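[job 4417] fold queue: 2 targets
>>> target A
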Amino acid sequence: MSIRFSKTIATTITAALLGIAQPAMAGGQISIGFSPSDPQQAQALGMGLQMFSLMQGLSASGANAYQNGSGNAAGFFQGGAGNHGLIYQNGNGHTDTVTQTGNANSCGLFQFGQATNAQCTQTGNQTGITTVFGF
């Protein structure tokens, strides 16, 4: 009986030590995106992004970035009229770019957690939103 008990304890301790010695999981990210399928949805989403920008103390047009954390990078290129790009980064080590050419584009990129990477490219009369969670 004591030999079996000792083997069980030794097996449990070995399994626990192997669990501790395993390398850490590599980081990753999960992205969820939405692009409206009709003009009414596009208008509603565009208005929602503008309202969100205003609630954050940003502008309802042009390029807007909100960053909370360290090591975050946000970049914009806008060519055309009536474009609205919003980057919202909460966490550390995020990288994000919004490229809008043509007119009347609206894009929202939201990043949470750690070390995510996202891009938005629009070429005219496009609306979309992407949320990225990093771990």
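>>> target B
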Amino acid sequence: MIIVRKVIVLVNTSLGTDGHVAEELRKIEGVKEVYKVRGVYDILVKIEAPDPDKVKEIISSKLRKIDDIRSTITMVVTNDGISALA
């Protein structure tokens, strides 16, 4: 059984560069979804990888190397979803 590690990364970009950064993020292997958001952070990224070492490689060797990324926060997903309460 293959376990896929899922993480959410919140990205803060330099002013006015969120569109360019989002396009660069979409090119990275393992990046499954990219959303421009409003608030403290500019972009939300969903990454999937087969193990924690691959996640670390994607974030530190690829994602954080993109010009205009000022900071990131990484959150490890612990389950595949929670049903919303009605």
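[job 4417] complete. Note on B: The chain has a mean pLDDT of 90.
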